[in-house]
Amino acid sequence: MSRVRYLAPLMFSSRNIHFAILGIILGAAAGYIFAFYQVQRNAPAGATSGAPSNASSGTGTAADPQNHPDVTPDQMVELFKQAIEKNPDEPELMTKYADFLFTQRKFAEAAEWYKKVLALEPANLNVRTDMATALWNMGDTKGATVEYEAAIKIDPNHVPTIHNLVVAHMDGDGDLQKAAALLKRIEELDPKYSALPGLQVKFEERQRRGKTAQ
Question: Do 152 and 158 contact (CB within 8 A), yes or no?
């Protein structure tokens, strides 16, 4: 499944992605998926733009393989297209292509591919959340909020998605009452959640702005 994204692009090492996708073209689809998961699992934490720092998202790279060939983004697109032609309607591959497009900041295209995955796996929480984040980066804050809310219905206790929905209400529709309720929910589910202090500070700032504007 896709690693949940916060409200900012996630940047993996392009060299690792290149190495992984080459495996597909050579027929090692299973090896590709495993390799990409290793990159996802080992990506360290970092700060995001437009959202508070968090423990599950960030910029970082895993170790690059030795003697690794360079592949341009355009070549990567062609490699993905070839792989998808060989493996049509393969959710894992389609998700990875959407992830690649996301890292290239091609959010509209990424969202379309996430939608294709959801047509096959409508209950895929991580993909739905990632699609919502792509919509957010496109400026479709309303659409993103709707998708985050749909994701919450799949799993009401999924803290990363609740995190995103808190930010969506604070920075999108300005519904601080909903944001406050969701923040309380995070406190109940995971009081030691690393991003919680940053969310609380941001929420207090939004509250102060609201009172100043009145």
Answer: yes
